[in-house]
């Protein structure tokens, strides 16, 4: 019988590396997938790290766009973190966080396309090239604006919902007080 190379050890990092190597490929063995699922059930941070496709996409884009400069890569990562915080990441609900991530991605793409547009249209260029880059830039701007508008709409709806819930809560309290008053009057008059 072959030894199970995914046998757990007392070293979580080594265990994860073994499961990662065994499952990060096409058609992994079912027993390796089972071991991965068990590990994910024990440690949810695995899913948060590797299963967060928005974050994975952001990292791929950053690494592709800025592979030639560690300085630019790290400063843009820092700017994205600041942008997330400025948009209220810490207090955001799940839907708002999805939209904040989308805004960060569209911001990243917009300014990357803006830079490419500048390089392609500075100096002599063909009319076709100019039109192409203008369309790319316009589409990037539309996507970014749409992401911002979506976050604003969700926040507006969330605020309206909170107002209705507060009003309903007050109305319920008022009804409860009135019911108690009537009940008190009914029970005290019968004595």
SSE layout and pairings?
Elements: H1 12-23, H2 30-42, H3 45-50, H4 53-65, H5 70-86, H6 94-121, H7 127-189
Class of secondary structure makeup = mainly alpha
Q: How does the major sheet shape up?
A: none
Low-confidence stretches: none
- Elements, N to C (H/E): HHHHHHH
* Arithmetic mean of pLDDT: 85
* Oligomer description: single chain
Task: Count all strands and give the number.
Answer: 0
Q: How would you explain this protein's 3D organization?
A:
With 191 residues, this protein is mainly alpha-helical. It folds into 2 domains: 12-50, no CATH class; 90-189. The protein has 7 helices and no strands. The longest helix is centred in the last third of the chain and has 63 residues, at 127-189. It is flat and about 90 Å long. The termini are far apart. The mean pLDDT is 85.
Features:
mainly alpha; 191 residues; flat; 2 domains; 80% helix
Concise synopsis of the structure shown:
The chain folds into two domains: 12-50, no CATH class; 90-189.
